[in-house]
Design goal:
The structure holds 2 protein chains of 2 kinds. By secondary structure, chain A is an alpha+beta fold. By secondary structure, chain B is mainly alpha-helical. Chain B has one domain. Chain B has helices at about 15-35, 45-50, 55-75, 80-100, 120-140, 150, 155-170, 170-190, 195-215, 215-225, 235-250, 260, 275-305, 310-335, 355-370, 390-400, and strands spanning about 5-10, 105, 110-115, 120, 375-380. Chain B has a 3-stranded antiparallel beta sheet, with helices on one face. Classes of the chains: A alpha+beta, B mainly alpha. At the A-B interface, helix 1, helix 2, helix 3, helix 4 and helix 8 of A face helix 8, helix 11, helix 12, helix 13 and helix 14 of B.
């Protein structure tokens, strides 16, 4: 009954189901809470949405810079000196590593390195550690396959899990197909080394560090692209759609160098540096008319493919020393001084200059200037021929300081030649003291001491003499082309000035021609088959660093300081070939030869060989008189009246030997062909008969001494069919 | 005019089924979206064998099991639940004890029986069994609910046993669900308010003591109150989950495009924090819909409970609704930072077999009850059956 009363007291609807109100209370409570959640969600998404999205972007967005494929470096014939290939590298993404010990074991085993080293490699400071940049495909490919495995093989999956964190990444590799051919000039581009703890550079970014790679870095590197993606917690980054494709390629650089002439120059330089036990050598071959550098050779060689095999005290071998190292030229500067003096008229061809019998004291306190012989009166040409320091010094004094300096500057000394882009060149030292040069200094500079030049400057100055006094800008980069081969810029031969007239230049070259005559200092520089002009140089070196061998109380009473002349020499030779209308100017510099200091001994023979081989390669016919000699000799034998025009020689004949000559296979050649080939192969022919060559002795591929005589027999060509009938 | 009360024919709540199915479908999509990237990550390979669809396939299996459970639960005769109440709770107690010794450990908790390819979490089933038993017990003691010793103490004792078992695992989330549902059931059954207040006070005191005694729980609370200070440790999940939800904005970043999700910043994105993935990828539209769906279940479940005369059925319906909605509310509250972090899944959506089956049974119970029992309601002009208020009262008494 009590219940019934209750029912009557309260509204029936509220009593439905008994305690329905309490259900509703709970329902409302929960509904309120759901609304609270909704409100919070709405606040987060609608009010703070943008702000939080920014936060996500900051937290999760990542970007990877992608680098354009670095352009090629080509020689003038289009041979590829440097190119970029995509290689595989191994990287460890540290947060993704699940089994550090296994990973370390794997890395150590795969790369054959000690385990401690592997441990070190995978425990770099950042998230990503590069373990190895260039991995053998034999290693990279199976590893990639395991890491990308999606099948069900339990063992592979186990391996995949154990190797978690290791990743195979794309890396850019710079390949130098010609190896050490022009290695220093081409230089090195590589992924920059980084200090431990620094953020690692991208393995795709190559940075030009030496030589042209550094000088043309901007053009070669091209544009880089930034790709955006989402940083993932355990797996690095995944790219978002809509990123630019990595298709860009940097521009390519075409050089004026010719790999074949470069090879010739390097081979001959190497021979001469090795046989003279020198420290190093430089050889430069330039085309006189255009200023184009055809070869810039250095020894010891540097192979940019194997930079890691050089120790830190061998880094100097990497330098393109012809551009960035300066040396005191010594006597090879004399032709420039003589030409200047002739131009200025301070000396005439008929003038005789007293050479003080070999020892000349300009100032009382100074040491006397000495010649290597006791010369009396010498005319201009003889000063060059016998390389008289005293004579040259007196000529310089006649010019006077200002004129001498002006002429030297006009020849390009003391300034960058502009051959190497981006000014990566040395200026050389052409001192301009406040008080000017003393007479002693003027005399010194006149025979090439007290002035420092680069090999390129020196070659250019000599080429200027050969070019009728017109100075061409030395060119190394001929052309810049884009990825499609379209020319972007082309370097045309550029006249930089005319320091001396054609007459003065020609007279100086005539003087240089006498250097190669019998009795001249450069006799060994005679070029077989060509008339050449040249100048020897033997420059004394100064200490470049404090003498490391000095001990207190030792043999010498004080340490030798920088700038003090020591008993170290640079033997050098510059030359023009042919002497009339020269095609090539060639410089050979042998640094610190041990066997013999004289440029005429150590450098001249290299000049001779480089010149003859390079000219043959360039299809330059031997000078008239030489051809006549050959023809006359042939005529003596009653064989050939006149040599037929020579066919272009296959390059293979020039590349195959070092030291002694190799007898080529001459069979079937005409007389002209045979003669040409013989010159290229550095052998002499003694011929009989006419027509095509039917017999030679010694046989092909026999090793003989240089310029040894090979007997050859020619006979009228017989048609093959006729032979068969017999 | 005094309106009469009518008893109407049973009306099946198709809406609840629809909403449950929609949520399960959404769950499938979101589980895939949340795991497609991480499934092939090296640290997951042991489980997924490199199969990117691994989690989706498992969830499909769970959904299948859930649908089976839902169908069975909605078609068994309703008396089965009454009969099962006592055996279920005993079985639950045994299972909960057993899991402490035989269970497998995962993430520092022992909650699962390992049955080869699947693992069963008895704690999830115990929630339902407990609701069934409490409903059964309350319905039986309808006349004596004003007495503390009868209405409160037995249920508290049983609840205490299960709370202890839960804490051994440990599983704070389930403990809180269990306690809250009990509290509300007692309240709804008509026990005295000051008794409820005492139980609530005791419960809050116990939770406080527990939280204070556990460094980890303290940190979680502190992290909840001041997330920025714990950004790298305890609030990491919370902050990233809030960032993810917020980043979704109105329309979301699109399925499979959530950057936080792809990047793996949403922790447990396929289970406890799936709501954050929904928020990021589907935006406010998605979160609003999900909350609305649970709101709908709440509305329909509570209406159903309020309109059933059968006391056991209405308590069970109420309890089942509570299990679903309370768990959803707590989950979403945690994800959005309204509540401190605790591990609870989002019903029907989150990945997980046991939870899925239990939630489906809950939905099945609602459907079953709506199909079985006549509804009481305020009369209207269209009603054909009329009963007076007094008759209703008698009917209520009789069913009790």
């Amino acid at each position: 009954m009590r219940t019934r009363r209750t029912v009557e007291k309260k509204a029936p609807v509220r009593r439905i189901g008994g305690y329905g109100g309490r259900i509703h209370f709970v329902a409302v409570l929960l509904a309120f809470f759901l609304c609270l959640c909704l409100g919070k969600v709405g606040y987060l998404q609608l009010v703070k949405g943008r702000e939080l999205l920014e936060e996500v972007r900051g937290q999760a967005m990542d970007s990877i810079p992608y680098f354009a494929k670095r352009g090629k470096i080509l020689d003038r014939e289009g041979n590829v000196l440097a190119m970029t290939v995509e290689t595989k590298g191994i990287e460890v993404y540290r947060p993704g590593v699940l089994h550090p010990d296994y990973v370390a074991d794997y890395v150590a085993g795969t790369l054959s390195i000690p385990r401690e080293r592997a441990q070190q490699l995978i425990n770099c400071k950042g998230d990503y550690c590069y373990v190895e940049r260039f991995v053998d495909p034999k290693i990279a490919e199976p590893l990639e396959a395991i890491l990308a495995y999606r099948g069900k093989d339990a063992q592979i999956l186990w391996q995949k899990e154990m190797l978690a964190g290791i990743r195979v990444v794309k890396a850019a590799g710079r390949l130098y197909p010609y190896g050490d051919n022009a290695g220093q000039v081409v230089g090195v581009a590589r992924v920059p080394q980084s200090n431990p703890g620094d953020e690692l550079p991208s393995p795709m970014k190559l940075e030009g560090q030496y030589g042209l790679e550094a000088a043309c870095d901007e053009m070669l590197a091209g544009k880089s692209v930034v790709q955006k993606g989402v940083k993932r917690q355990r797996q690095g980054m995944s790219l978002l759609p809509g990123n630019p494709e990595l298709v860009l390629e940097g521009d390519s650089v075409v050089l004026t160098l010719d790999v074949n002439i470069q090879a010739i120059a390097e081979e001959e330089l190497r021979r001469t540096v090795i046989t003279s036990l020198a420290r190093r050598g430089i050889a430069v071959v330039t085309e006189v008319e255009t200023g184009e550098l055809l070869a810039v050779a250095h020894y010891p060689p540097f192979n940019p493919n194997g930079t890691s095999s050089y120790s830190s005290d061998e880094i100097w071998k990497w330098n393109d020393a012809a551009f960035i190292d300066v040396f005191e030229p010594g006597s090879i500067l004399k032709p420039v001084v003589i030409a200047s003096a002739l131009e200025e008229g301070v000396i005439g061809m008929e003038d005789e200059i007293f050479c003080e019998n070999g020892s000349w004291k300009i100032e009382k306190r100074e040491k006397p200037i000495k010649d290597h012989g006791r010369f009396g009166f010498l005319n201009v040409w003889d000063i060059l021929k016998f390389s008289s320091n005293i004579g040259s010094g007196k000529v310089g004094l006649r010019l006077g300081q200002e004129k001498l300096q002006a002429y030297l500057e006009a020849f390009g000394f003391g300034e960058r030649t502009g051959a190497m882009p981006a000014g990566r060149e040395a200026r050389g030292i052409l001192r301009r003291g406040k008080r000017g040069w003393s007479d002693m200094e003027i005399a010194n500079i006149s025979f090439g001491q007290g002035i420092a030049v680069t090999a390129i400057q020196m070659t250019s100055a000599i080429a200027t003499l050969g070019n009728g006094g017109r100075r061409m800008r030395p060119l190394l980069v001929k052309e810049v082309i884009d990825a499609n081969g379209e020319t972007i810029s082309r370097a045309e031969p550029e006249v930089m000035g005319q320091p001396v007239s054609a007459r003065a230049a020609t007279l100086a070259v005539d003087g240089m021609r006498r250097v190669l005559e019998a009795g001249g200092t450069g006799e060994a520089g005679k070029v077989y088959g060509f008339d050449a002009a040249g100048k020897t140089g033997t420059a004394q070196k100064t200490m470049t660093v404090e003498d490391p061998n000095w001990e207190p109380g030792g043999e010498r009473d004080r340490p030798r300081r920088r700038g003090v002349y020591v008993d170290k020499w640079v033997g050098s030779f510059v030359g023009l070939v042919p002497a009339t209308n020269p095609r090539l100017a060639i410089l050979v510099m042998v640094d610190e030869p041990y066997m013999n200091d004289f440029g005429g001994v150590v450098a001249a023979p290299a000049f001779s060989r480089i010149a003859s081989r390079a000219l043959a390669y360039m299809n330059v016919n031997p000078s008239e008189e030489i051809r006549h000699i050959v023809a006359d000799r042939a005529a003596e034998q009653g064989v050939v009246k006149e040599a037929a025009p020579a066919a272009p020689a296959p390059i293979a004949h020039q590349r195959n030997n070092f030291g002694p000559a190799l007898v080529p296979d001459l069979s079937g050649m005409t007389v002209g062909e045979a003669l040409k080939t013989a010159v290229l192969s550095r052998i002499k022919l003694r011929a009989s008969g006419s027509g095509v060559l039917i017999h030679q002795e010694p046989a092909a591929a026999t090793v003989v001494e240089e310029w040894a005589t090979v007997r050859v027999e020619f006979a009228a060509a017989v048609p093959v069919a006729a032979e068969e009938e017999e | 005019m005094e309106r009469g009360v009518v008893e109407r024919k049973p009306r099946v709540e198709h809406g609840i089924m629809l909403v449950a199915l929609l949520l399960m479908g959404l769950g499938l999509v979101m589980v895939y979206s949340a795991t497609v990237y991480s499934a092939t990550a090296p640290h997951m390979l042991g489980r997924t064998q490199g199969n990117g669809m691994y989690f989706l396939e498992r969830q499909l299996m769970f959904v299948g099991a859930g649908l089976l459970a839902l169908t069975m639960a909605s078609f068994v005769p309703f008396w089965v639940y009454r009969k099962m109440a006592v055996p279920a709770i005993i079985l639950g107690g045994i299972a909960m004890t057993g899991v402490l010794f035989l269970g497998k450990e995962k993430l520092g908790a022992v909650r699962w029986f390992d049955l080869g390819p699947i693992s069963v979490q008895p704690g999830e089933f115990v929630k339902l069994a407990f609701v069934m038993w409490v409903s059964f017990s309350l319905a039986r003691k309808q006349d004596m609910l004003t007495r503390f010793s009868i209405a409160i103490i037995p249920h508290l004792l049983v609840a205490g046993v299960f709370v202890l078992l839960y804490m051994e695992q440990p599983d704070l989330g389930s403990t809180i669900i269990l306690g809250t549902v009990l509290l509300f059931l007692l309240h709804v059954a008509g026990t005295r308010l000051h008794h409820i207040a005492m139980v609530m006070g005791g419960g809050i005191a116990m939770v406080t003591v527990f939280v204070l005694s556990s460094g980890e729980k303290m940190r979680r609370v502190a992290a909840w109150l001041n997330p920025e200070a714990f950004a790298e440790s305890d609030a990491y999940q919370l902050i990233n989950s809030k960032i993810s939800i917020g980043a979704g904005g109105l329309l979301g970043e699109g399925l499979g495009s959530g950057q936080q999700n792809i990047a793996g910043y949403v922790p447990e994105g396929e289970t406890d924090f799936i709501f954050a993935v929904i928020g990021e990828e589907l935006g406010f539209i998605g979160t609003f819909l999900v909350i609305s769906f649970f709101g709908y279940i709440l509305w329909r479940g509570m209406s159903l409970a309020a309109s059933i005369r059968d006391q056991f059925a209405r308590f069970l319906v109420f309890g089942a609704t509570m299990l679903v909605v309370l768990q959803a509310a707590i989950n979403m509250g945690v994800t959005t930072g309204v509540l401190p972090t605790k591990g609870l899944t989002l019903p029907f959506v989150s990945m997980g077999g046991s939870s899925m089956v239990v939630m489906c049974i809950c939905a099945g119970i609602l459907l079953n009850a709506s199909r079985t029992f006549p509804r009481l309601g305020v009369e209207s002009a269209n009603d054909d059956v009329r009963v007076s208020a007094s008759e209703v009262e008698v009917l209520i008494k009789e069913t009790a």
